[in-house]
Write a structure and sequence with these properties.
This protein has 471 residues and is of the alpha/beta class. It folds into two domains: 271 residues, 3-Layer(aba) Sandwich (Rossmann fold), CATH 3.40.50; 176 residues, Nucleotidyltransferase, domain 5, CATH 3.30.420. 39% of the residues lie in helices and 18% in strands. The protein contains 17 helices and 16 strands. The strands form two sheets. Strands 3-4-2-5-6-1-8-7 form an eight-stranded mixed beta sheet, covered by helices on one side. The chain has an eight-stranded mixed beta sheet with strand order 9-15-12-11-10-13-14-16, sandwiched between helices. Strand 3 and strand 4 form a beta hairpin. The N and C termini lie far apart (75 Å).
Length: 471
């Protein structure tokens, strides 16, 4: 009996030109767990041009048919033409000498022999077995018997399709009436997408069915039969490091092909689209609170009446410390001059904020005492004795504060013209912040901008600001 190769070894044997980075090895290891049946329902979102389809829709079907020549696999994409293209690539792999050496039992019809077996660009049968590979476009029909494994790769062609409510609804209808009706108890599903819209298939499934985020290798064995195992590969690492994706903050996923500098330039062009396609966090433009509505400045005004800072320390987990330096002119306009925006520990952020306060010549700093802020404020005072550090408790409802002050924030706050370059994550989280509060992953930046406006505009006009505590 020929030993079964690991998926990575199989891939390098039939496609020796492949480049394998740590990301690709992780991706292929997860796909191998799916091929072995350890994962029943898997969703992976991957940025464009990172090898998503080569692994999941070309190499994986060939590998799975080699492991089990009786398996019935269906590939679906946004068009029948693209799905057929994947099918033909799989067939060429199965015909190769390298594949035959690894999986001699899995063969397909060549020429006119043997008769009785189907081989077209849309369907191919495994000789001597029950296995077959079928390809279908979105909204196409699937006839015949059951399907043991569905691989759904990019069911939306582009942003225009994904933005269409009609196409999204048709996609969901096709999924429920065609894909789900062909499945049986042991069927497996793999969805590999570049995200376009928050209401795409992944978004709808996330609201209607149980999800488990894939953070560690143990999650593979602990996931329930009816749970989706979900993994999002961010082009620029923004979420906390995990065993599956241990990159540090801001590291590129495939720097040899898509460098950090290139990705940042793409983010500057369209932060909303970038967050969807490259970061896997889609949002609707019409639901944005601020969008690109901030006015920008080149030079600071001559007449400055205050140089201040506002800091909100991070909760445990995925929250950010947000510390913003700003100046106020005689007209009450607020100019943001520098930002520290980080998920790192206070031991790391305390010296960063202290250095910023010294560099900007800040005379007054306000620190929210919630979530350890009081201790943070005391540490700052020791590090920057020339700055008056005050802490205060913020007890008002965060959602109500942010929403009710949003117009004032846009009207009063000015950003430097290069803020998208200087503070890319801060920029992205501000410009993609949604009116629907619970739809936001991060509210730290919006909360601090609101706090600055409350202190410098709202409280200044009505005299009702609760006095901060001096250290």
């Amino acid at each position: 009996m020929v030993p079964q190769p690991a998926f990575v070894d199989f891939a390098t044997e039939v496609y020796p030109f492949l480049e394998f980075t740590p990301f690709h090895r992780t991706y292929y290891t997860i796909l191998q767990a799916f091929a072995a049946g350890r994962i029943k329902r898997l969703i992976v979102s991957v940025p464009p041009q990172h090898g998503k389809s080569v692994g999941a829709t070309t190499l994986l079907p060939a590998y799975m048919l080699g492991l089990d020549p009786d398996m019935r696999i269906a590939i679906a994409s946004y068009s029948g033409t693209l799905a057929s293209k994947f099918n033909r690539r799989v067939q060429r792999i199965i015909e190769s000498r390298e594949y035959e050496a690894m999986f001699p039992e899995t063969t397909i019809k060549r020429g006119t022999k043997p008769s009785g077996y189907i081989r077209t660009s849309d369907e191919v049968e495994i000789i001597g077995h029950k296995g077959e590979l079928i390809s279908v476009g979105r909204e196409g029909s699937l006839t015949g018997n059951r399907v043991d494994c569905f691989i759904l790769d990019d069911l939306y062609k582009d942003a225009m399709e994904a933005q269409s409510p009609v196409i999204r609804e048709n996609c969901w209808e096709w999924y429920t009436s065609v894909v789900r009706t062909r499945m049986h108890n042991a069927s497996r599903e793999l969805i590999v997408f570049t995200r376009w819209h928050e209401e795409d298939l992944i978004g709808v499934l996330g609201r209607t069915e149980p999800f488990r985020e894939l953070r560690s290798w143990s999650d593979i064995d602990e996931v329930g039969d009816n749970e989706w195992l979900v993994l999002n590969f961010e082009a620029l690492k923004a979420s906390p490091a995990t065993e599956i994706d241990p990159r540090g903050e801001g590291e590129a996923l495939w720097p040899e092909q898509q460098s950090r500098e290139l990705l940042l330039s793409k983010r500057r062009l369209d932060p909303v689209r970038f967050e969807a396609m490259y970061q896997g966090h889609p949002s609707s433009r019409e639901g944005l609170l601020y969008g690109d509505g901030f006015r920008q400045y080149t030079l600071l005004p001559r007449d400055i009446v205050a140089r201040s800072n506002y800091t909100d320390t991070a909760d445990a987990g995925d929250d950010y410390l947000c510390s913003v330096d700003y100046v106020v002119d005689t007209d009450g306009i607020i100019y943001v001059t520098d930002v520290v925006y980080s998920r790192q520990t206070m031991e790391h952020t305390e010296p960063l904020v202290a250095a910023m306060l010294k560099r900007e010549g800040i005379r007054q700093a306000y620190v929210e005492s919630n979530n350890g802020g009081r201790g943070f404020a005391r540490s700052l005072q020791r590090l920057v004795p020339t700055t008056r550090i005050e802490w205060f408790h913020q007890s008002a409802n965060k959602e109500a504060r942010i929403l009710s002050n949003s117009a004032t924030v846009l009207h009063t706050v000015r950003m430097p013209e290069d803020w998208c370059v200087r503070w890319p994550e801060f920029y992205a989280h501000v410009t993609t912040y949604k009116r629907l509060f619970r739809a936001n992953r991060h509210d730290d930046a919006a909360d601090v901008l609101t706090g600055i406006v409350e202190r410098e505009v709202t409280a200044a006009s009505n005299g009702r600001w609760q006095r901060a505590r001096f250290i």
